Structure prediction request, 155 residues.
Amino acid sequence: MATRLNYVKAAPGAYRAMSQLEHYVKNCGLEASLIEFVKIRASQINGCAYCIDMHTKDARAAGESEQRIYLLSAWREAPFYNERERAALEWTEALTLIANDQVPDEIYQRVKPHFTDEELVNLTLAITTINAWNRLAISFRSEVGSYQPQQTSAR
Prediction:
């Protein structure tokens, strides 16, 4: 698939705004591995090949196991995720598919014990941000496969 347009060049201010959100998410205090899992899972749901490629590479570069990355789409059946990660993945799915059922109270009640109020807001922003990136990459057909992690030690 050919790239439709380079959104970074077409609207640099929009890209800067998204990058500022990304910077906040990266530095908000949530575990880097949790953020990468959220990004991968939302991207899987949305079918964003560019973001799946990017965030699986970032997760591997940060030392995450291939097994945990490969099984994210089946996290409920896999024993490799802790309760906090499971809560984050459930929240990710609910927010990414928000049009389906508006994030039921039962899901909120299951997720809430694993996060402080601030963490839950930050997690929600992380999910919101990756969903926005997915929409940019899918809409404008970002070139899949070209991404390379920039640094491995900071994660």
About this structure: The longest helix spans residues 117-139. The chain has one domain: 12-139. The radius of gyration is 15 Å.
